[in-house]
Design a protein that fits this description.
Rossmann fold; alpha/beta; 8 strands; 6-stranded parallel sheet
Length: about 160
């Protein structure tokens, strides 16, 4: 499988778009930090025709807000990421073999197992890392999303 054959990239949110930390306000509101340059990376691969989505276990609406800002499809409050990835693949009409899943934790393992290419962020939990095809240099929330987008963008032009 060549990376230039990837047609669909699905990301976990917490620990991939974020550094897996949360700030909690006095009234219980949650805040996370995202890497702003991720948006440029996503735009680049979307221009290549690569479809992009987020699958998150989190119920929090901030996941939906970030996805909306980036213009990408998002499902949150997902309990079984393997089943959800299969369903998304059908909905987006992309074979799982041409789907990349990017995650960081044990709840991502079912999606890692069935995706064509599985990717872990640099600070991926060791138990989950056993199921990834390769690991990124950047940690979640510190440019991991941009890194994989740039790798895919370059692969589109450089792989034979």
């Amino acid at each position: 499988m060549y990376l230039k054959d990837i047609k669909f990239v699905v990301f976990d949110f917490d620990g991939v778009f974020t550094n897996n930390k949360v700030l909690i306000g006095e009234k219980g509101e949650e805040y996370v930090t995202c890497f702003r340059s991720d948006g440029i990376g996503i735009e680049r691969i979307k221009k290549l025709g690569i479809k992009v989505a987020i699958l998150s276990s989190e119920k929090n609406n901030l996941v939906l807000k970030r996805a909306q800002k980036l213009g990408i499809f998002c499902l949150n409050n997902i309990k079984d990421k393997g089943k959800a990835l299969k369903d998304l693949s059908l909905d987006f009409n992309v074979d799982l073999s041409k789907t990349m899943y990017v995650g960081n934790d044990i709840n991502d393992i079912p999606a890692f197992k069935i995706s064509g290419v599985s990717v872990g962020v640099a600070d991926c939990l060791e138990e989950a890392r056993k199921f990834v095809d390769f690991s990124l240099k950047n940690s979640g929330g510190e440019g991991a999303v941009r890194e994989i987008c740039d790798i895919l963008f370059e692969a589109h032009f450089n792989e034979a």
